Amino acid sequence: MKAMSRDRLLAWLEELAGRSTLIGPRIVGEKILYKPVHHSAEIVLDFAKTDLSAKEYFLPSTEAILSVKREKKGFDVEEPSLHGRQIIFGLRPCDARALRVLDALFLNKEPADPYYAERREKTTLIGLACREMGDECFCTSLGLAPDEANDVDLMLTEMAGEYAIRAVTAKGKALLGAAVLQEVEGVPPNPFVRQKQVPILEVGKWPERFDSPFWAHLSDRCLSCRLCTYVCPTCRCFDIRDVELSDKEIERLRAWDSCMAEGYRRIAGGHNPRPAKAERLRNRFYCKFCYYPQDFGPVACVGCGRCIAQCPVNVDAVEVLEGLSAL
Amino acid sequence: MAQNPYRPALGTLVGVKDLATDIKLFQVALDNRQEGRGGFQPQPSYRPGQFAFVSAFGVGEAPFCLTSTTRRSQALEFAVNKIGTVTEALHRLGEGDVVGVRGPFGNWFPMEEMRGKHIILLGGGIGGAPLRPVIHTILDDRANYGKLTILWAARLPSLLIFREEFDSWRAAPDTELHLTVDQGDETWKGNVGLITELLEKVAPSPEEAVTITCGPPIMIKFVMLTLAKLGFAPEQMIMTLEAKMKCGMGKCGRCNLGEKYVCTDGPVFSYAEVRSFLESY
């Protein structure tokens, strides 16, 4: 196997940071987040999972999609030029798979989203296999593995102080370029995988559970705080609105939105087909496991468990999936 | 970016007319169709039932049905009810002002399949707007459609839209226009009552007929029940639904009803389809 020592890896990342935008896991306050890295010393190599996924770098929480200048008569509309190439280091397999899920909607469903497509095209993904599944992780129930390499360009797996490295795509191979690798014996150890599987109902089994009182019971404690949607690597709902920067300058912004908010589905005139918390919570789960697969292909959950870890009132996706399958 | 579906084409307001209290008709002449860069792509032509986003730059954009037909109007026409921030901003604009338009989006009424059939249209308030291009299409191709029955309703007489066209609709061959308001005023001599009551009174036959309904969801619900009572099958009941969508392309997630998206699967649906949705509109 080809591998790099830890020091060699950090030196290579330092080099990458010097010539490209490098994004990697960093400690920010009490969180670990994917953030731009200027020196490899800022990177955390030993971490379980970042608190937020890398979704931000493809579908930013807020981005200007148009800039509009007020002219004497009328307007001049311009599309912002997106930043250059970026490399994301230390992407976990679940977060890499989440990009495939978003691709199904933003790239494969016509018309492609030009902003997402450009960022995706300009980004190289360096994956870092998990050594073990975390407390809230259930990726294996969704057909993933903690060392899944199929969704990144380059895959790194830790083995006895070395990092085994494998180019998965041509993009990954090109990035690796002339980096100095050493030959090591053996294969990376298998990650620790929990045996327990969370039941994921097939699409056809969802409709019969739609009218169950289960949803009202579950939503009693939901605060409609929207955190689950913001930390989710596959939730992608967005709003578009304008802001006036000055008398002459307007930006049209796209920002993350959440189906958990009361006003989200309300129509002009005030009618709301989803006024109750139970209906909104139900919609979120149906979107992920029933509607999204029907409309776009993949299930819109990668089992990262962030919604479980960060829900303030412990609405637990695993409990929901288990409860539903027991109905 | 070669093709950006979020980029609106610029257009000038060549007409702004009062249609009813707080409802105006905006006529937009596209300055530059910006083919190939997003904007408004009218090829081959937009159809009755389709919608587009209109921008009031600085405030935002919102979806509106196209209430014109390419045959009758060079300009794109939108009927806008002042009801939120974007519509308030649009209502502040006048002739000569510039707006953005992107579209057209969505499916359309099955005008070809409707040929030879009797057509019953039920419009409530601003919900009459998507029906106007249907009326124009039928009247401009009169021989190819059966009897046209229009039931046009509003809460108040002052909220009836396209009043200045009523005479020309009534004058068309084999065409009936029935009006009703929930509440009359001193000048109102016509029907007072809900559109469902009017529908029961007019009692159109379901034989070889197609209905199209547009209005607030509560009206649609009760019109469907009344149509069923009159013997119409769910496949004969067509409706157009509304949602506060943001993209028009199935991406923003805003407008789903179960696994269907109002923007790309609709906005035109038959009641047979709508009944099969997991989620009610």
Overall mean pLDDT of chain A: 95
Please identify the structural class of chain B as seen in this structure. alpha/beta
Strand content of chain B: 25-35%
The parts of chain A where pLDDT drops under 50 for at least 5 residues are: none
The oligomeric state is heterodimer
**How many beta-strand segments of chain B?**
15
Which value, in Å, is the CA radius of gyration of chain A?
Answer: 21 Å
Q: How many separate domains make up the residues of chain A?
A: 1
Radius of gyration of chain B: 18 Å
Run of helices and strands of chain B = EEEEEHEEHEHEEHEHEEEEH
Q: Would you write up a description of this structure?
A:
The complex is a heterodimer of chains A (327) and B (281). Chain A has 327 residues and is α+β, with helices and mostly antiparallel strands. Chain A has helices spanning 6-19, 93-106, 114-121, 170-176, 214-219, 227-231, 277-296, 306-310, 317-326, and strands spanning 2-5, 21-28, 31-37, 62-70, 75-78, 86-91, 123-128, 154-159, 162-167, 182-183, 238-244, 249-256. In chain A, the strands form two sheets. In chain A, strands 3-2-6-7-8-9-1-10 form an eight-stranded mixed β-sheet. In chain A, strands 5-4-12-11 form a four-stranded antiparallel β-sheet, with no helix packed on it. In chain A, a hairpin with a 4-residue loop joins strand 11 (238-244) and strand 12. Chain A starts with a strand and ends with a helix. Chain B has 281 residues and is of the alpha/beta class. Chain B folds into two domains: 9-105, Beta Barrel (Elongation Factor Tu (Ef-tu), domain 3); 118-240, Nucleotide-binding domain of ferredoxin-NADP reductase (FNR) module (Rossmann fold). Chain B has six helices and 15 strands. In chain B, the strands form three sheets. A seven-stranded mixed β-sheet of chain B has the order 10-9-8-7-11-12-15. In chain B, strands 4-3-6-1-2-5 form a six-stranded antiparallel β-sheet. A two-stranded antiparallel sheet of chain B has the order 13-14. In chain B, helix 4 runs parallel beside helix 5. The longest helix of chain B has 13 residues, at 217-229. The two termini of chain B are 36 Å apart. The mean pLDDT of chain B is 95. The chains are: A alpha+beta (327), B alpha/beta (281). Chains A and B meet through strand 4, helix 3, strand 11, strand 12 and helix 7 of A and strand 4 and strand 13 of B.
